[in-house]
Design a protein that fits this description.
The protein is of the alpha+beta class. It has helices at 46-51, 95-109, 130-144, and strands spanning 8-14, 18-24, 26-28, 31-34, 43-45, 54-55, 63-68, 76-83, 88-89. The model is unreliable at 1-11 (pLDDT under 50). The structure holds zinc ion. This is RRQRL motif-containing zinc-binding protein.
């Protein structure tokens, strides 16, 4: 017998509204466990929700996806599955948040020495632009010599 056929039948009730009858491999922590490619299409992992422009919206996982990687180490991976019906659209930033974000990004581009806003983020270690960093480096070498 193909081990993939050894599954249990379970009924899942979400909020007493939707009844899914599906085949799962058993239960872990009270949640139905599905193998790779076996989960119902209405259940998605966090990453799959994100790809679909959705977020879990504070819901608890309703099932688990358990699979092993094909290659060398065959670690068991457990991913939480969330109900698409209870997911929400990804939040979009408010204008105020966008302003705050752009200010924060500007702050990361300002050189502490020359005060010029660069078109790249200055390194967090020195907070200097490339030119000032080179100058400082040359000065250090000059002092050392
Ligand atoms: Zn500079």
């Amino acid at each position: 017998m193909n081990p993939r056929n050894r599954r249990q039948i379970s009924t899942m009730v979400f909020d007493g509204l939707t009844h899914h009858v599906c085949l799962c491999r058993g239960f872990r922590d009270g949640l139905p466990v599905f193998g790779w490619g076996e989960a119902p299409s209405t259940l998605l992992t966090r990453a799959q929700l994100r790809e679909a422009g959705l977020r879990p919206n504070g819901q608890d996982p309703v099932a688990l996806l358990v699979f092993r990687h094909v290659k060398p180490f065959a670690h068991e991976t457990v991913a939480e599955l969330f109900s698409v019906e209870r997911a929400a659209l990804k939040r979009t930033a408010t204008p105020a948040q966008l302003v705050a974000l752009s200010r924060a990004m500007d702050a990361r581009r300002v050189c502490v020495d020359c005060g010029v806003v660069q078109d790249y983020c200055v390194p967090t270690s020195t907070r200097q632009c490339g030119t000032c960093e080179d100058t400082a480096m040359a000065d250090q070498i000059g002092v050392a010599a």
